[in-house]
């Protein structure tokens, strides 16, 4: 899965949690929860969605420090079964 | 024969518009099946049927707006024949689903102009509409009050956010007008609860992890078992105890407004179940796919505004309920334990209750029970049969 595919998959998960959010307009380096107004239940639903979509289970200890889209993509990219190609 | 009526959609919603039927005549329906999707001022709601039967007739069509309680479909029970229910269906079909306003006397038409009823002319003047430019639907093409109102609605069709704001305004105004609220607050140490959750979640997959929110909800539900006078409704001058403890969860919608669907029979559920149900409820509320029963069942409401950063909340009771509990933000604050000041995670729990049904003393005991229960999270995590 390339970095772009990973971004697309994560944004797809986000769209299911927040259907009204304009995910294309998100600033990847800024706190996701502030931009989309996610509460703890949304965040948990998002991580469950990420687990289902790309097979990566973000441990509780790591979830707290993953706050931006870029951080999440980086985190998932190095944990995918095959290294990202792009 | 089962007359299926548009169910209650919460105390602040008295009508709904049919978006679609999920069943057709001849279909078999089981208790709990979703039979229709109804648009309300707050959201599109899946409406369930609580009887087994066979759909005999659908009495309204998509686009029809009807008051709560209107018979919208007729079902045959096992053993009944179509002939046995035919007469009742014919009677229902011939009665208008929505009461039509009384026709007002219509002024004589000027030559070449459609007649305009006095009420229509008066309303048109209030709204700044020229009634002579409208197409009349009254006798002989007369312009009626309904024609003027329809024209005004076309000129200013409020969006869902605006309608929802009006709905919330009506419910909250009624609450503040009718309910003598009293307010109490209590700081609740959460060291035991957060330690329990950290230990539980450390080695678990994200699909099995628990949030703090269901623990906070369960503490309210178990406290209600001890103090049932906060669980129910004030109707017709008297308190009516809730049948079961169904906790409404105030959920803010990003498009504006909020809904408070219920988690049912909360004390009987273990924390894993409650957590799963809460995740599902919030996701469906924000995606606009709640069920009618979820919106009408709550016997108390809990609101957690702490995630927006506020330390405490002074909530307004959702009538006809008699109490609402608010949780603020979980913060590490200095707390004295055994004579030593230590940093402890605390949440401020608040209670707004109806003074017609309880006094501050009982409210204080109830909040103290919430605090005490949250010191024993393992017990809260277990289901009570």
Brief rundown of the structure:
The complex is a heterodimer of chains A (86) and B (385). Chain A is an all-alpha fold.
Q: How many helices of chain B in DSSP terms?
A: 10
Q: Which sequence of SSEs, written as H and E, runs from N to C of chain A?
A: HHHHH
Q: Work out the helicity level of chain B.
A: 25-40%
- Which outline of chain A best applies? globular
- Helicity of chain A, as a percent range: 55-70%
Largest interface: A-B, 24 and 21 residues
Rg from Cα of chain A = 12 Å
Overview of this protein structure:
The complex is a heterodimer of chains A (86) and B (385). With 86 residues, chain A is an all-alpha fold. Chain A is built from five helices and no strands. Chain A has helices at residues 3-17, 32-36, 40-54, 60-63, 69-77. In chain A, α1 packs across α3 (40-54). By secondary structure, chain B is α+β, with helices and mostly antiparallel strands. In chain B, α2 (118-127) packs parallel to α3, α6 packs across α7 (271-287) and α6 crosses α9. The chains are: A mainly alpha (86), B alpha+beta (385).
Features:
heterodimer, A: 86 residues, mainly alpha, 5 helices, 56% helix, globular, B: 385 residues, alpha+beta, 7-stranded mixed β-sheet, 5-stranded mixed β-sheet, 10 helices, 31% helix
Secondary-structure blueprint:
The complex is a heterodimer of chains A (86) and B (385).
Chain A: H1 3-17, H2 32-36, H3 40-54, H4 60-63, H5 69-77
Helix pairs in contact in A: 1-3, 1-5
Chain B: E1 2-5, E2 15-21, E3 28-29, E4 34-39, E5 44-48, E6 53-58, E7 65-67, E8 71-76, H1 82-94, H2 118-127, H3 145-155, H4 160-178, E9 181-189, H5 191-202, H6 212-226, E10 232-235, E11 238-241, E12 247-249, E13 251-252, E14 258-259, E15 262-263, H7 271-287, E16 290-291, H8 292-296, E17 300-304, E18 323-327, E19 331-337, E20 340-354, H9 360-373, H10 377-381
Parallel strand pairs in B: 5-16, 12-17, 17-18
Antiparallel strand pairs in B: 1-8, 2-4, 2-7, 3-6, 4-5, 6-8, 9-20, 10-11, 12-15, 13-14, 18-20, 19-20
Helix pairs in contact in B: 2-3, 6-7, 6-9
């Amino acid at each position: 899965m390339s970095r772009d595919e990973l971004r697309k998959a994560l944004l797809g998960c986000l769209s299911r949690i927040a259907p009204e959010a304009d995910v294309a307009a998100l600033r990847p380096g800024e706190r996701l929860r502030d931009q989309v107004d996610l509460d703890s239940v949304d965040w948990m639903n998002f991580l469950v969605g990420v687990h289902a979509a790309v097979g990566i289970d973000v441990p509780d200890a790591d979830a707290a420090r993953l706050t931006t889209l870029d951080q999440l993509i980086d985190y998932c990219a190095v944990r995918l079964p095959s290294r990202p190609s792009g | 024969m089962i007359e299926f009526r548009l169910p209650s959609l919460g105390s602040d919603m008295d009508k709904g518009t049919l978006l679609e039927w999920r069943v057709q005549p001849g279909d078999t329906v089981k208790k709990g099946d979703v039979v229709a999707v109804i648009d309300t001022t707050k959201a599109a709601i899946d409406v369930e049927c609580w009887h087994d039967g066979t759909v005999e007739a659908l009495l309204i069509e998509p686009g029809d707006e009807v008051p709560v309680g209107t018979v919208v479909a007729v079902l045959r029970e096992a053993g009944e024949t179509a002939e046995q229910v035919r007469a009742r269906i014919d009677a229902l079909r011939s009665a208008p689903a929505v009461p039509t306003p009384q026709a007002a006397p219509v002024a004589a038409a000027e030559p070449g102009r459609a007649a305009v009823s006095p009420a229509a002319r008066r309303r048109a003047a209030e709204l700044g509409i020229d009634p002579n430019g409208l197409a009349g639907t009254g006798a002989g093409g007369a312009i009626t009050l309904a024609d003027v109102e329809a024209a005004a609605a076309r000129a200013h069709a409020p969006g869902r956010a605006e309608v929802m704001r009006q709905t919330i305004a009506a419910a909250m105004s009624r609450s503040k007008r009718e309910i003598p609220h009293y307010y109490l607050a209590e700081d609740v140490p959460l060291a035991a609860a957060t330690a329990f959750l950290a230990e539980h979640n450390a080695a678990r997959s994200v699909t099995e992890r628990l949030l703090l929110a269901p623990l906070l909800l369960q503490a309210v539900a178990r406290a209600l078992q001890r103090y049932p006078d906060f669980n129910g409704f004030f109707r017709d001058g008297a308190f009516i105890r809730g049948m079961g403890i169904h906790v409404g969860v105030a959920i803010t919608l990003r498009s504006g407004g909020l809904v408070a669907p219920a988690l049912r029979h909360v004390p009987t559920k273990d924390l894993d179940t409650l957590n799963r149900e809460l995740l599902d409820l919030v996701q469906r509320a924000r995606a606009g796919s709640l069920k009618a029963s979820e919106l009408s069942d709550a016997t108390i409401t809990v609101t957690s505004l702490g995630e927006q950063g506020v330390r405490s909340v002074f909530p307004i009771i959702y009538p006809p309920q008699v109490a609402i509990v608010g949780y603020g933000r979980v913060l590490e604050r200095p707390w004295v334990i055994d004579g030593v000041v230590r940093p402890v995670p605390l949440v401020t729990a608040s209670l707004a209750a109806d003074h017609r049904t309880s006094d501050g003393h009982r409210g204080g005991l109830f909040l103290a029970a919430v605090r005490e229960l949250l010191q024993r999270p393992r017990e809260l995590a277990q289901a009570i049969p």
